Structures are given as structure tokens and as C-alpha cells.
User: What shape does this take?
Amino acid sequence: MKLNNFFNKKKFKCKCCGTEYDQIPLCFGSTLPDYYFSIPPEERDERIILEKSLCVIDEKHFFHRGRLTIPIIDHSENLCFDIWTSISRENFEKRKEDWNDPKRIENEPYFGWLQNQIPTYENTINIKSRAIEQHVGSIVKIEIGEEGHQLTFDQENGIKLARAKEIVQCILSNEHKT
Assistant: This one.
């Protein structure tokens, strides 16, 4: 065995473009809820209020950004997706009110509907989710609760590193197509 290969075991190479990473990239995200793209571009400035992790469309559709984590059972890190879920007006206002309050972690989870398609998972738009507040400065934790959905199963039970690599390769391949 070459010593170079021994010391570079953690390197990850994209099969599509050949880019070599120091380690496997495991955090991906959506900068906007998919519903955003249903609004014609020329109307977005007037109809959408967008902050870093909060979005309101037409003053009646409320969204917040959170982190969905899938444990990798044979690896020291997890696969993460920063995604958007819908949220009720009442819970949206509560989130804004408690944004800098350390006691926000005591809030009940917020019900919502996932608003992004998660790569390699079938039909993730509008599946059930729960947002669980974290400490101030940390992104909300998203748990999927759609019975019988593979994403729910994988989040609850974890996936193997080989499966995580397949997902990452798929994501990277799609990024290079655009």
C-alpha cells in the first residue's frame, strides 16, 4: 500500500467532475422554500419578505429554515440538510418573538410541512415535520414525521456511510449539471 493513500483515506472524490475534497461534504442546503419559485420573478419583491431563516409570502404563507439530520451509523459525522418548512402564523410570530430568548428551547415543537425536495428521497414536498427549538444562535432541528416515508425511517434509524456517499455523489452530480 502506498503511504500517500494510507494518509489520505478521508479524501473524497466527486465521480462527476473529479473534484477532490479533504473529506466527504456532509452538509447541504436550500436557500429558499420551493414555494418561493411559484411566484413570478417580477412579483417577488412585492409579495415576499425574506430574512436569513424566515420567509413570508403574500402575508399568509409562513416558512422557517431548519436542519434535518440523518445519522450515519458507521461514521463520526451526520448527513445534514438545511431546509425550509411551513409554519403557522401563530408559531411564526412566536419564533420571531423568542428569537433571542434563551428560554425558547422550552417551547413545544412546531408542526409544519417540508418545503424542499431532499435529493434521492421520493416526494418530500409537504411531508409532515416538527421543528424543535435549539439554543440561541443555533438552527432549529427538523424531525420528519411522515409515516412510511424512507426519509423518516433513515432519520430515525440512520444510514451507512456507503449510502451517505451515494447521496452526496448524486447531489454533487446534479450541481454540476446546472
The mean pLDDT is 89. DSSP finds five helices and ten strands in the chain. The first strand starts at residue 12 and ends at 13.
